[in-house]
Predict the structure.
Amino acid sequence: MKAPRTDESPEGRPDTAEVVLAARNVAKSFGAVHALKGVNFDVHRGQVTTLFGENGAGKSTLMKILSGVQLPTSGELILDGEPVQIRSTVEARDRGISIIHQELSLAPNMNVRDNIFMGREIMGRTGIDYAAEERETRALMRELEEDIDPLTLVENLRLGQQQIVEIARALSVNSRILIMDEPTSALSASEVEVLFGVIRDLKAKGVSIVYISHHLEEALTITDHAVVLRDGIMTAYAPRDEIDLEWIVRNMVGENFDLGTPPEGHEMGPPALELKGLCVPAASGSGYAVNRLDLTVRSGEVVCIYGLMGAGRTEMMECVAGRLPASEGQILLHGKEVSNPTIAGQIGAGLVLVPEDRQRDGLVQTMSVGRNLSLASIGQFTRGLFTNRREEDVIVDQAIREVTVKTDGASAPIGSLSGGNQQKVVIGKMLATKPSVVLLDEPSRGIDIGAKSEVFRILADHAKDGMAVIYSTSEVGECLAIAHRVIVMRRGTIAAEFTHDVTKEQIMAASGESLVA
């Protein structure tokens, strides 16, 4: 394999496609934190450039600069051969540049149609032409093969459907440069295939794609060439035919490693969580999202729940955590039945949930990193109406170290962190309550391979100390990480149960999915 190209020699690349947008020596600082340190980056006409890197490597910062969300501290952007300053997203859109953000930027209290055309409404003779907007929205949904009514409120859509709306909004602008920051993080396998088909069509029309993903193998199927960022510096570049999974991992984290193995060297204790005949009504009001489910998880055991979108994983976890009501069945925590559980009650009893949607359910955007980390364990350092800041600082500092949050300090705004580090804050917040049972719904969403390894190591260590760990995932590879058992859910029930030596093919077959090479 050829040696990777780096920032020091951006010229002489083998790409024959025209460079339509380039970053030259771009740097960005946030106080004492240097997010980018003189990056050179090219966007080629009609090609997909995939940007890899760990959380905090500077990927999202670079994309925000290219799309007008942020201005660089130094360096320049060159568009169509001319230096430009892109001062806003509106200016970027006018120049043909759009971005699909990793964190959804939709208005949940508005319908799908209004979200797609917000700020650039189609005007008729007497005002906004809602009929025309609805027709275009339906056409976009057909293109994305998603049956979503344009008049549905966004807050009533599941997370994957909200991601589809975000993608549709970007496609509706007819951009010539489209930046996709983790566009598949909430999509099912079939939705990913549809999106990749759309990307191929866009390439054929000359649209340039910048693609960011922590799904490494998935990204390799769509990329034309790859760039790796590490600590704000571009460390490697290569065309598609020179890269593989090992090349990406080595340049991202410095070594090739797996996500871990099931924790050993300890005996499992008695049942920590028992579900008996659990039923959770579907959000549609018809049928059940979870249908007569039985599950027992012992202290010190790690159980993975795998299933496709709509399998009932999220509904089961949210019911156990007190977020959704059960219509039938029992929930037992350490042998004692929990009737009508509430979120606060379950946290107090030692059961916590790390939710799938960190922005909506896991973080308070107006609070600092430290306040977000201490929020769930506030009872540990409050006395009546007063808080003990010293005790709170101890909890926060320990959480930052335990989940390795990369931050400028506990007082830093939560919005200053990368998506993956925000996810670590959500996990750290719940672990700070010292739970005996932890549920994690898609804990690696938006987390790079290095951070995944850290998170799974943390969970394995807690399992050795007797904590029951239940995590759900739609990535079959993560089932083979640290789980003692793999439970496959399908249509609200348990379709199969395996030990840790199960194969990918067995898991996917049980879920009703086929393995595509």
About this structure: The CA atoms of residues 124 and 421 lie 45 Å apart. Residues 1-14 have pLDDT under 50 and may be disordered. Residues 104-158 form one domain.
